[in-house]
Amino acid sequence: AANLPKWRRVVVKLSGEALMGDAPHGLHAPTLERIAADLAAAAELGTQIAVVVGGGNFFRGILGADKGIERARADSIGMLATVMNGLALEQAIEARGRQARCLSAVPMPSLCESFSRRAALHHLAKGRVVISAGGTGLPFFTTDTPAVVRAAELSADAVLKATQVDGVYTADPKRDPNARRYDTLTHDEAIAKNLAVMDTAAFALARENKIPIVVFSIAGDGSIRAILEGKGRGTFVLP
Ligand code: UDP
């Protein structure tokens, strides 16, 4: 279709779980290496790549209540978890010979640079993979929101949302054998049909700013690059 995004610059939303692989929590080294190789290979295509990384493999704010930790503080712990992933990813990408910069929304200058739009654009222009960690820096959000915010402020062509399934389905494909995958959807259709593409706050922002979202599976080798090459499978949510 004529309105398909051109991949000059993209934001890849990578959940912490994507880095967990078969491990029960935390980082799974072969999975980290596989995804870093994919990102480095994707950057080889000349597309500027910013990654917004989650932290669910270490901690999620909503789990705080179980541990007697109030939500705002638990979210601080969650944001720190995203920086752990960001630092690991930065090193893994650089090990593949591609420069990367982890930028944190929560300033921690002895560990990494603080996020600023200017710094991010500078590193992108140099061909570095930018990793946006620390979420928004605010509690009561998940990393879906900074994925859309970064896409908007960096004028990215799309958010590529890496998930465990290869798109958005009419029903849960794990439970309903008749579930059908959408090739394309509009933001309005996704809302009308009550399809959960990402968190509602983040999705509203994407809709308002007409930001395309590509939902695809991170399971296979080279899946991020494949999306950029037009070979991958996924659901395109277009304005
Ligand atoms: N978080 C936050 N503000 C943000 C982004 C994230 O407080 O802007 C916290 C929140 O507690 C969240 C955790 O960081 O649960 C980890 O992020 P997320 O749950 O999005 O990780 P993912 O599910 O992508 O692994």
TrEMBL record:
Pathway: Pyrimidine metabolism; CTP biosynthesis via de novo pathway; UDP from UMP (UMPK route): step 1/1. One of its GO terms (biological process) is 'de novo' CTP biosynthetic process. It holds the Pfam family AA_kinase. Inhibited by UTP. Gene3D superfamilies: Acetylglutamate kinase-like. Residues 9-217 form the Aspartate/glutamate/uridylate kinase domain. ATP binds at K13, L14, S15, G16, G56, R60, T163, Q164, Y169, D172. The keyword Oxidoreductase does not apply. One of its GO terms (molecular function) is ATP binding. SUPFAM superfamilies: Carbamate kinase-like. Coiled coil: none annotated. Catalyzes the reversible phosphorylation of UMP to UDP. Belongs to the UMP kinase family. Homohexamer. This is Uridylate kinase. It comes from Methylosinus trichosporium (strain ATCC 35070 / NCIMB 11131 / UNIQEM 75 / OB3b).
